[in-house]
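Hi D.,

Good news: the full-assembly prediction came through. Inputs first.
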Amino acid sequence: MSALISMHGLGGGYAPGTDAISGVRAEVEAGQTVAILGPNGGGKTTLFRALLGELDHRTGEVELRARVAYVPQTERARLDFPVTALDVAAMGTYAETPWYRRLGEPSLRRAREALGAVGLENSEGVLFGELSGGQRQRVLIARALARDARILLLDEPFGGLDQTSAQSLHEVLLGLREDGCALLIATHDIHDARGFDRVLCLNRRQIAYGAPETVLDAPTLERTYGGEIITLPGGERAVVVGHHSH
Amino acid sequence: MIWPFEPFELAFMQRAALEILLLAPLAGLIGAQIVLRRLAFFTHAVGTATFPGLVVAGPAGISPALAALAAGGVFATALARLGRVRGLGREAATALLLVAALGIGIVLASDVFGSGSGVDRLLFGSLLAIGGEELQATAIALVVSLVAVAVWRRTWIASGFDPGAQAALGLRVRIADWALVAVIAIGVIAAVDAVGALLVSAILVIPAATARLFARSVRSLEVGAGTLALAEGFAGLLLAFELDVPPGAAIAVLGGLGFALCATVVALRGRPAGEARA
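Then the structure:
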């Protein structure tokens, strides 16, 4: 398998002279899922912005061998907007459709295929606000797929979902992994992170990167979360405390 | 000719009707974005902000449209600065500037400058006194707006739905947002001649807000808002002609009644279109 993302000592930030992230080294291959763990302000969003090209990195290098798309939390999207699931998925084709061209059948076909890939082929005419939380998250993933993106950056996709919706979304992500997408998933759920191929621990600098069984130990988690984490006896369970969702 | 067409044998009524025909597409296309992006109060404030410029235009011998544009520019710049003041907030800053613009306009129109401008006409419009120059200005505003809508409509929809569309979709949102503000200002200046600085919302906001109650797509919102603006505009014009009342006020009253009626129907039928389920 070939690496879709290569980060070599990536570092950068917003304020002059102060890096929000530093020393990020990771190779992410096609068909891999990577959990990005870290406290609030630890650099998860900054890393995504650097990969999207919105933040100039000051040190290191990033090589991307496929198109990148960001999948936000559903709370950020307007639920009262009069757009259907198909309309939202088709937004993924806007950037490459010149303004003087109508959104033609090829674009709509891609949007429909993307909806099919997330199991919503029968909901294309439903208003976005009338879908369940899990379905909305899947529509936003479909929007990224319609961009022809093979690298997806997902911002806490399981936040606020019930167990059934979370399971269904998990199956969608596994399907995308099998299709050769690289998925970077920002999460606070250490238990979920154990189910991914790789884990990247960030706290303003890279703490660790590797397979979950080698990374998710008590010392690494304590270095990642500092005082925000309680490791239960035996080190098998760790709980993040003091987290507030955005 | 029989009623309701009889009044349109008069030249000033024909010009007023043509002005409404030109404003209706603006109400549909721009009004839809105003309502979707929750810019109704901003639009009302831009309308009021043109008032001092319009007062000064006559005595100074400059084009009312240019004076209104300049006043709108001062408003937008001041809002951008005030909106960043800690603890004030954008809404409060808009209200502050709106009141300031209204007050300055009234002071300028008083004996201080000896202005002969009719304050009522500037605030509430003069649809029955529309001339060729005003029609020309509205037609230019319509053409400019149509071009802007053609170029940026998709980006406006995508970024209105998801404010982070730039990162998620690779769209140039910032330029599109500035274009939207400019187009709203152009639409406001076009509507000021017809309904006045205080009633631009009667054309650019109320029809779209009413159509929003039923619309299940952006396209149906645009078509619905434009159609309502046309219907309310013509009905208001006829009402004004028959009852000898200001047409801007008649259009605003009809728009308000239309919204109340539709909102009642929607409330009786159930939730409005597009409302999220729990």
